[in-house]
Amino acid sequence: MDDLEGGAKRGAPWKRMSKEELENQYSPSRWVVRLGAEEALRTYSQIGNEATKRAQATGRNLLDVPYGDGEGEKLDIYFPEAVSEALPFLMFFHGGYWQSGSKDSSAFMVSPLTAQGVAVVIVAYDIAPKGTLDQMVDQVTQSIVFVQKQYPGNQGIYLCGHSAGAHLAAMMLLANWTKHGVTPNLKGFFLVSGIYDLEPVMHTSENASLLTTLEDAQRNSPQWHLKTAPTQPVDPACRILVTVGQHDSPEFHRQSRELYQTLCRGGWKASFEELRDVDHFEILWNLTQKDYVLTQVGCIPSPWTECILL
Ligand SMILES: Nc1ccccc1C(=O)C[C@H](N)C(=O)O
């Protein structure tokens, strides 16, 4: 087994892993416990498709709203039944290693959240090979600026991302809003099973083409930026919930824990939760359920419900 970077025995644990082990650590479907890898990925799209069909058939919504000039710069907005000017908005960024997934199969949390008075926005961005990471980060920024400008009376904008989408959401901790002419009313971040340091991902086969230089990886690593030059929340009340599934790989656990620790050191109001008995995909499926801890109102106090729904 060949060690990456020759004799790097100290520092980040991934530097001591063989290529094979690193590949394994960054392949979430290999860590599922109840299904086979293929079956887990299939079920993931199926649940996403069904949740999206249900959301589109049952509530008020605006679909394919352009937030920029690009063909792929569209978002879907799902409104709660009660009409109100001052709604909280939850914006969701899907996962799929920056190269798969779509807004059309990612309306996972729409029904439990609209039922509780939250407008949910599912955002499309140009996945690779069409989009580069820098472009995706820029599109996510634009989508948030669009929602703030469109709904200036919003009761808060909450960002939620899963996997690669959690990476894109976390990049917004570093956004420079002044050049966009509006500062979004960001009240919370829900980062679900994400990757925040992209350097190890450079060495995996699936993502090698997205991240070609160490500079690309660092420029797009919230963990690296927050560690080297901590940012401050615009709104000191802004909360960040970093969650990871119990059955996510050790590298995914490390990534979430280290981001959480860095956020705490930087003065952010962050919490960390390892969600029991779920894998990388089930963690998201649970968000389709009304009685799940992350989508339930007024039960077990969780940062999620505390900040969006109270
Ligand atoms: N489709 C996804 C949706 C969400 C999050 C990850 C994926 C992946 O496919 C990850 C990787 N290709 C895997 O096989 O584990």
Automatic annotation (TrEMBL):
One GO MF term attached to the UniProt entry: arylformamidase activity
Q: One GO term of the cellular component aspect?
A: cytosol
Q: Which segments carry the region annotation Disordered? A: 1-21
Pathway field of the UniProt record reads: Amino-acid degradation; L-tryptophan degradation via kynurenine pathway; L-kynurenine from L-tryptophan: step 2/2
Which Pfam families does the entry link to?
BD-FAE
Q: Write down the EC number.
A: 3.5.1.9
Question: What are the BD-FAE-like domain coordinates in residue numbering?
Answer: 75-263
Give the matching InterPro entries.
AB_hydrolase_fold, BD-FAE-like_dom, GDXG_lipolytic_enzyme, KFase_ver/fungi-typ
Compartment(s): Cytoplasm, Cytosol; Nucleus
Q: Which residues does the entry assign to the active site, renumbered to this chain? A: 163 (nucleophile), 248, 280
Q: Which gene encodes it?
A: AFMID
Which residue ranges does UniProt annotate as crossing the membrane? none
**What reactions does this protein catalyze?**
N-formyl-L-kynurenine + H2O = L-kynurenine + formate + H(+)
Q: Which keywords appear in this protein's UniProt record, sorted alphabetically?
A: Cytoplasm, Hydrolase, Nucleus, Tryptophan catabolism
The record comments on the domains as follows: The main chain amide nitrogen atoms of the second glycine and its adjacent residue in the HGGXW motif define the oxyanion hole, and stabilize the oxyanion that forms during the nucleophilic attack by the catalytic serine during substrate cleavage.
Principal subcellular localisation of the protein: cytoplasm
The UniProt similarity line reads: Belongs to the kynurenine formamidase family.
Task: Say if the entry is tagged with keyword Cytoplasm.
Answer: yes
Name it. Kynurenine formamidase
For the biological process aspect of GO, one term held by this record is:
L-tryptophan catabolic process to kynurenine
Q: Which domain of life is it from?
A: Eukaryota
